[in-house]
Design goal:
The protein is mainly alpha-helical. The protein has a single domain, classed as Up-down Bundle (Growth Hormone, Chain: A), CATH 1.20.1250. Helix 3 runs antiparallel to helix 16 and helix 13 runs antiparallel to helix 14. The longest helix is centred in the middle third of the chain and has 30 residues. The two termini are 39 Å apart.
C-alpha cells in the first residue's frame, strides 16, 4: 500500500508540469480564432485568405510531427519540451516585426514557427501522460490533462476579444470612407494590437523552458521493438484509421470555432457585435472543459469506444441542426458541440496506440500529423463560404463527424493476426 502511494505521489509533480504546459499552449492556440477576424480587417483579407491562419498553424503539425518524434526518440521527453517552448517563443516574438510592417505572410510565418514549437510539446506530452502510470487509467489521465488545457482554451477567446476586437464594431462603410492616410493609420493601429500579447507569450515560454531545466522529471521508457522499421507501423490498421479520425476531429473543431464569429455576424442579429460573438467560442471551449472534467470520471466507468459513439453522434446532429436552423438557435447549436467533442481526442489517441509497444512514439507522431485537419478543413470551409454562403461551409464538419462515428463503431478495433 505504501509503495503504491509513493508511486502515485511520484507522478503528481510531472503530471502537473505537463498539464501547465498544456494550459498555456492551448491558450495560445485558441487566440487564433480571434486573430482570424482581426487580421482579416487589419490586412484586408477574404474569408479564404484569413482561414490560411489555421493552415499555417496546423500545417506545422503535419510537417514537423515525425521529425519531432524522431528527436524525442533520441533526446527524450524533457529535451522535447524545452525545444518546443523555445521554438514557440521565437514564433511569438516574430509577431512584433510582422505587425511593424503589416505583412500578412510574415504573420503566417510567425504562426508556423510558433506551432512548430507546440508540435514538439504535443508529441511529447500526450504519450508522456499516457505512460505516466497504469495503462488502465491512460484515457482518464489524458482527459483530465486535456481539461486543464481547455481552461486555457476557454479563457483565450475572451481575453483575445478584449485585446484585439472592438467593443463596438466599426462598419465597413466607415472604413471605406477613410482617405488613404486615415486608412493606413487605422490599419497600422489594428496590426499593432498584437505586439504586446505575443511578446508576453514569448517571455512566458522562455521562462517555462528555463524552469524545466531545473525540475527533475521521471524517465519513461517504452518497450523495445526488435527489427524496428517505420513502415511496420502500417501493419496496425486501427492506428492509421485513428490518424484520419484525428484529422476529422481537429478539422471540424477548428473549422467551427474559426467561422463562429463570422457566422454569428452573418445573422445580423441586433446588438451582436464581433466581441460579443467571441463569447460563443468561450462557451464552446467552456463546454469542452466541462466535458473533459466529467469525462475523466466517466471514462473509468464506460468503454471509451462507446463514449466516442455518443460524442460523434451528438456532434453530427448539432451541426445538422445548425445548418437547418437560423438565429440564436443555430449559433447555440454550434456552441454546444464543444460538449460532445470534449473527450474525442483522448479517446481516439488511446484507442489508436493500443497494443503498439515500441511503436508508441512513432504512432504518436502520426497522430499528431493528423492535426493537419485543422489546416485543411477551414480553407475548404472558406472556399465554400466565398462561393455558396457561410451556412453551407458547415457541411465539411458534418462529414468529419460522420467519419469519427465510423471509427468509434468499427475503425478502432485492433486486428489480431
Amino acid at each position: 500500500m505504501r509503495q503504491e502511494t509513493t508511486k502515485q505521489t511520484s507522478i503528481i509533480v510531472p503530471l502537473l508540469i505537463v498539464m501547465c504546459l498544456m494550459f498555456f499552449w492551448n491558450m495560445s492556440r485558441n487566440i487564433n480564432d480571434i486573430l482570424i477576424p482581426h487580421l482579416k480587417r487589419a490586412c484586408q483579407l477574404t474569408d479564404l485568405q484569413s482561414s490560411l491562419i489555421q493552415s499555417a498553424f496546423f500545417g506545422a503539425y503535419f510537417l514537423l510531427a515525425l521529425p519531432a518524434g524522431q528527436f524525442i526518440q533520441k533526446k527524450g521527453y524533457r529535451a522535447g519540451m524545452i525545444t518546443g517552448l523555445l521554438t514557440a517563443a521565437i514564433g511569438a516574438a516574430l509577431f512584433f516585426p510582422a505587425a511593424e510592417i503589416r505583412y500578412y505572410p510574415l504573420f503566417l510565418l510567425a504562426l508556423f514557427v510558433m506551432a512548430a514549437g507546440f508540435t514538439f510539446l504535443e508529441v511529447t506530452a500526450t504519450p508522456y501522460i499516457s505512460k505516466l502510470g497504469d495503462a488502465s487509467g491512460a484515457s482518464s489521465r489524458l482527459s483530465l490533462s486535456a481539461a486543464v488545457g481547455s481552461v486555457g482554451a476557454t479563457i483565450a477567446p475572451y481575453v483575445g476579444s478584449l485585446l484585439l476586437l472592438h467593443e463596438k464594431d466599426i462598419p465597413q462603410s466607415t472604413i471605406d470612407a477613410f482617405n488613404p492616410n486615415q486608412l493606413q493609420e487605422f490599419l497600422t493601429g489594428e496590426a499593432n494590437l498584437v505586439k504586446l500579447p505575443y511578446l508576453g507569450l514569448a517571455g512566458l515560454f522562455i521562462a517555462m523552458a528555463i524552469l524545466l531545466l531545473f525540475i527533475k522529471l521521471p524517465t519513461i521508457k517504452d518497450e523495445e521493438q526488435t527489427k524496428y522499421s517505420f513502415k511496420n507501423i502500417f501493419q496496425f490498421p486501427h492506428t492509421i484509421l485513428g490518424v484520419v479520425a484525428v484529422f476529422c476531429y481537429v478539422g471540424a473543431e477548428v473549422g467551427i470555432v474559426s467561422f463562429l464569429i463570422r457566422y454569428s455576424k452573418s445573422m445580423h442579429l441586433p446588438g451582436l457585435t464581433e466581441q460579443k460573438s467571441a463569447l460563443f467560442i468561450s462557451v464552446f471551449m467552456g463546454l469542452v472543459l466541462f466535458g473533459r472534467l466529467v469525462g475523466s470520471y466517466i471514462l473509468k466507468k464506460f468503454a471509451p469506444s462507446k463514449m466516442l459513439v455518443v460524442s460523434a453522434s451528438g456532434a453530427f446532429v448539432l451541426v445538422l441542426m445548425a445548418i437547418l436552423s437560423t438565429g440564436y438557435f443555430s449559433i447555440w447549436s454550434l456552441a454546444v458541440i464543444g460538449l460532445f467533442t470534449s473527450i474525442m481526442y483522448p479517446i481516439v489517441f488511446t484507442l489508436s496506440i493500443k497494443n503498439l509497444g515500441g511503436y508508441t512514439k512513432t504512432a504518436s507522431s502520426l497522430l499528431i500529423m493528423g492535426i493537419v485537419g485543422g489546416a485543411i478543413i477551414p480553407p475548404i470551409m472558406g472556399q465554400i463560404s466565398d462561393k455558396a454562403g457561410i451556412r453551407f461551409a458547415f457541411i465539411a464538419p458534418l462529414v468529419c463527424y460522420a467519419y469519427v462515428l465510423f471509427y468509434a463503431l468499427k475503425g478502432h478495433v485492433v486486428k489480431t493476426k
